[in-house]
Amino acid sequence: MRGWIKAVLVAGVVVVFAGSLFGLWSFKVIGYDTVSGQATFDIRGVVGPDTGPTCPADRRYVDEQPKGLRDDVLPEFEKIKAEARKNNVTLCLNDGKRSSRQQQAQFDDYVRRYGSAEEARKHVLPAGRSMHELGTAIDVQPLSAASWLERTAGSYGWCRRYENEPWHFEYDPNYRAGCPAMLPHA
């Protein structure tokens, strides 16, 4: 009888552990406005490549190479990545440079998803309006790395620009004097 109880307990622990792992794997982060309680961001729709090396800090994301970033922006990205490492922060580039075609395809997908261009614009800009197309914007994952980068308050020239996208940062050397006020959305 004792052997049976032990087997049931071990099986129960395995099921609970496996369920916890699955729960973490499928975990979705939704941010909330501290005043209204309305959802402000949802990482289920975070854009980024589907293939490539995974982010070691959060395997839901790809850590893409920073190719396509503007020539003056690439070394600045390398600086923050190195500085993050010094601070024991794993900073992954989930999305960097996009072509106009990629940007428009993403916008069109969000129009289908949200039902109107007006709603889609709250989450993604149409082609010709995104800093990703210019090679000066990055989407950082995991959110703990994005939080670290935000706390640098522009001292490296990178600032978070949208309240509903805690992963989106844009580079401008003028930001070293301080980040501009965030916009509510794209």
UniProtKB/TrEMBL annotation:
The entry's keywords: Membrane, Transmembrane, Transmembrane helix
Record carries keyword DNA-binding: no
Listed SUPFAM superfamilies: Hedgehog/DD-peptidase
Signal found in the keyword field: no
Annotated ranges, domain D-alanyl-D-alanine carboxypeptidase-like core: 69-172
Residue spans crossing the bilayer: 7-27
Record Pfam families: VanY
GO terms for MF: peptidase activity
Superkingdom field: Bacteria
GO biological process terms on file: proteolysis
Entry-linked PANTHER family: D-ALANYL-D-ALANINE CARBOXYPEPTIDASE, PEPTIDOGLYCAN L-ALANYL-D-GLUTAMATE ENDOPEPTIDASE CWLK
Protein name per the record: Peptidase M15
Species whose genome carries this gene: Kibdelosporangium aridum
